[in-house]
Amino acid sequence: MNGAVALPLDLPELSLTASGDALVRRSVLPSGIRILSERVPGARSATIGFWVAVGSRDELGAVSAADVRDGAGAHGLAAAALPSRFGSTHFLEHLLFKGTPGRTALDIAVAFDEVGGEHNALTGKEYTCYYAKVQDRDLPMAVSVLADMFTSSVLDAAEFENERGVILEELAMADDDPNDVVGERLFEAVLGDHPLGRPIGGTNDTIRAVTRDAVWQHYLANYRPNDLVVTVAGAVDHDELVALVIAAVDGAGWELTKPARPVERRLGSSAPVTRGSALSITNRPNEQAVVMLGYPGLVATDDRRTTLSVLNSVFGGGMSSRLFQEIREKRGLAYSVYSYGAGYSDAGLFGMYAGCSPKNAAQVSELMLAEFDLLARDGISVGELARAKGQLSGSAALSLEDSDTRMSRLGRSEITTGEFADLDEGLRRLDAVTVDDVQQLAASLIAGSLSIAAVGALEASTFDRVVQS
């Protein structure tokens, strides 16, 4: 494989040999279903994911008939008057495990437990994935069960109300975790009214308010053949996989003979973002304060995303990073301190985090900001660049020992970037990053609007000097 390989939506078949002699194949069925596999030599297990490119950002608020045109709604659903669907994506992730006409919730759980498999789901801001990891011999079962869940969930009314309580408990658990709270507050502060600023799981109010009909409409609008992406990595034969998927969804009554183009990918260009707030304080009598500083970041398809990985590694990505050395090792002001980047189709976020004593929150915030300003002004050294490249190349290679990572890479490649880049291509891009690239990117990021989010025994005045800097 030489360079990244594009994944056109109108290309029926694609096959390539990736690094490590892994065989990657992709089929686009006439119905619009996309199936991707990566066969890994020597693997005895496989991880499978059923994906839909719909996440929390795609949920509709309350829509009146006057507000809806033909083609409105996620992926073009024509709608009449609709209640709010906020929280529907997370709700639906739970409900698909609650039974189909042919399987109860217990049947679904037993199917994986009795073979020692793992199964779960995740809701993101721009996609949802239902996945399982099993031995190679149990892959047909996994395809059958996940396809049944995906195509034929009944969304039973009694189960719906039961699960409402479960989700509220999940939100309560997250609300008790200051790390979860500060992360949500930072997204709201940086991205403002942009849909990506909303919490993935919904809120207590939206989960209490959403109706079964709203979730059902969300399901019908977005769980269709041309929305479905199936990815498998590990011990997998592609032709057998395609046959298994076709048989499973055909048995569910999906129309597979009617031609349909896969849903279009989101545009990979930056949307205007208006900062939600410069400072968001959640005052709680905790022993430790958690503080996050953030700027608008890069979109997921930005050519500088590899440069961002290097910047993040040097700045806050490990024990040798500047933040860790300055704040923890030299000054002993925090136990956990790091930076990260999150990129989506039309917006992103670059953030830094520290957990510290409330009395040190201002000093730690100033130090994080000062270190970022220093990086933006003076850049990084050749030694730091080499160390970052070593860290990133090693972690990338090690992560690919896991079929879960390979399965997720296939899904993100198909849904988000529209290209497949193997380890060799990733290393080539990494090798091309220069110290000037890193300095220029840091200068670009720090020129954006700074937002601060914090949870703890703090007052807004704690951050006066940071906000004014």
UniProtKB/TrEMBL annotation:
GO terms of molecular function: metal ion binding
UniProt-listed SUPFAM superfamilies: LuxS/MPP-like metallohydrolase (SSF63411)
Start and end residues of each Peptidase M16 C-terminal domain: 210-392
InterPro entries membership: Metalloenz_LuxS/M16 (IPR011249), MPP/UQCRC_Complex (IPR050361), Pept_M16_N (IPR011765), Peptidase_M16_C (IPR007863)
Occurrences of domain Peptidase M16 N-terminal (ranges): 87-203
Protein family: Belongs to the peptidase M16 family.
Protein name per Swiss-Prot or TrEMBL: Peptidase M16
Annotated source species: Subtercola boreus
